[in-house]
């Protein structure tokens, strides 16, 4: 694809507003100074000083950064060509920006920002996977009803993987699985017997016995590696959350609620994430999964990249491609096609430009709620306690995440993970049980709840939504 031709629209650059100036927002602002067809002059964070600092760090002229506390101040600064920093989207959403990038990572705040952007007639780029996992299809439906676009963003794995899946489908490939590498690699130094992952180093000399796949059964070596590194985390909520977004865009499903998540070397992935009939782990096709990249210190990472596993229907062609270095399974039946990157805000502009210039999303044409991310208690959770969301990965202590088929909210239904986050339990949840909507106290004015009810009404029918409104 020639991107210059794709975005060849004769008009002024697209003006944007980014809400949330953490890693993604900051990288978006930095690249925004360099994208010819886009401007990134407006930043919002919980403290305007944080937004201003992010603008300065991005390379904006400090003399042109204005901290604005009213809509009038913001309007004056924007008209003068200055950079605008604010502590509330409501102060700046009336500026002549075309796309709001929601990158806070906070589901309740993100729901409010989504509503404000759509009500103001702005396209929405949803970076916050926590928000998307609860009500992404509903937000897209709401935006489309107003002639607007809600889109995931290139730079994050969901949009990149949706692009790779649809590329493969366009070319007629038979897709067995799609996924991404996990948040962190497992880097094994065979000389010392040490494994490093996510800043932790553990002695695991036994892993040397499981370094090579060879002719071993997929399930056996995956189990052996998992046992060897049992001291290190092997599941991360963000992985499941991101794959949910892909599932809602493509209809792909998880093979098991917590994913297989094998620890695998890059060359092994098409062997392990193949059907059981082909010696792999999967019970069907069009499955979503993740792998933990096992590598030596001097080997390249998969870098949180995305992949599809496809069937090799023409063996001579794939034998030729394998000889050229493409990653083909040990029996030659499947191959992995992949993008070993996700550049966060540095490559998000393509999604922003698609929304503003072309009126299309980088995700599904019309996403549907196929999956829900839910929480299962890993310990007894007493009534009256709060399901506090915290940490870099926005986890909830005492729970683990799972992917299940999406349903409308009801007291008996499992509560979406990030709808339950920061809610108080009204009754004890025993270890091993899914947390249900009836277990939690949701603030009646929750904007996230309102968006989810809208989604349920749009996709599961007014009767289901009415039941939720009465009982949730």
UniProtKB/TrEMBL annotation:
Residues 241-348 form the Oxidoreductase DRL-like catalytic domain. Pfam families: DRL_cat (PF21135). InterPro entries: DRL_cat, NAD(P)-bd_dom_sf. It comes from the Bacteria. This is SAF domain-containing protein. It comes from Ancylobacter novellus (strain ATCC 8093 / DSM 506 / JCM 20403 / CCM 1077 / IAM 12100 / NBRC 12443 / NCIMB 10456) (Starkeya novella).
């Amino acid at each position: 694809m020639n991107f210059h031709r794709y975005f060849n629209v004769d008009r002024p650059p697209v003006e944007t507003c980014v809400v949330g100036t953490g890693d993604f927002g900051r990288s978006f602002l930095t690249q925004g100074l360099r994208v010819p067809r886009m401007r990134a002059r407006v930043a919002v964070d919980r403290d305007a000083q944080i937004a201003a600092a992010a603008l300065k760090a991005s390379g904006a002229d400090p003399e042109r950064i204005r901290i604005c506390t009213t809509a009038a101040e913001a309007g004056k600064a924007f008209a003068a060509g200055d950079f605008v920093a604010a502590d509330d989207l409501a102060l700046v959403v009336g500026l002549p920006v075309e796309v709001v990038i929601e990158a806070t990572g906070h589901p309740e705040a993100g729901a409010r920002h989504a509503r404000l952007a759509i009500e103001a007639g702005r396209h929405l780029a949803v970076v916050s996977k926590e928000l998307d996992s609860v009500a992404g299809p509903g937000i897209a439906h709401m935006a489309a009803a107003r002639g607007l676009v809600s889109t995931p963003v290139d730079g994050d794995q969901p949009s990149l993987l949706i692009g790779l899946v649809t590329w493969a489908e366009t070319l007629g490939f038979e897709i067995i699985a799609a996924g991404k590498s996990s948040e962190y690699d497992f880097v094994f130094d065979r000389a010392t017997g040490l494994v490093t992952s996510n800043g932790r180093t553990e002695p695991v000399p036994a892993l040397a016995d499981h370094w090579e796949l060879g002719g071993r059964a997929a399930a056996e070596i995956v189990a052996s590696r998992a046992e060897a590194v049992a001291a290190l985390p092997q599941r991360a909520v963000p992985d499941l959350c991101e794959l949910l977004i892909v599932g809602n865009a493509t209809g792909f499903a998880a093979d098991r609620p917590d994913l297989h998540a094998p620890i695998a070397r890059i060359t092994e992935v098409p062997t392990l994430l193949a059907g059981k009939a082909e010696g792999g782990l999967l019970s069907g096709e069009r499955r979503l999964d993740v792998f933990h990249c096992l590598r030596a210190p001097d080997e390249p990472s998969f870098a949180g990249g995305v992949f599809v596993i496809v069937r090799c229907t023409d063996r001579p062609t794939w034998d030729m491609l394998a000889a050229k270095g493409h990653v083909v399974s040990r029996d030659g039946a499947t191959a992995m096609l992949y993008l070993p990157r996700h550049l966060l805000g540095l490559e998000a502009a393509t999604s922003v430009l698609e929304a503003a210039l072309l009126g299309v999303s980088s995700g599904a044409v019309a996403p549907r709620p196929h999956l829900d991310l839910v929480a299962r208690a890993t310990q007894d959770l007493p009534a009256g306690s709060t399901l506090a969301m915290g940490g870099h990965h926005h986890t909830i202590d005492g729970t683990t995440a799972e992917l299940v088929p999406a349903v409308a909210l009801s007291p008996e239904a499992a509560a979406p993970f990030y709808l339950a986050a920061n809610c108080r339990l009204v009754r004890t949840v025993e270890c091993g049980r899914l947390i249900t909507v009836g277990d939690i106290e949701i603030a009646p004015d929750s904007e996230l709840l309102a968006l989810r009810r809208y989604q349920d009404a749009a996709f599961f029918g007014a009767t289901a939504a009415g039941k939720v409104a009465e009982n949730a």
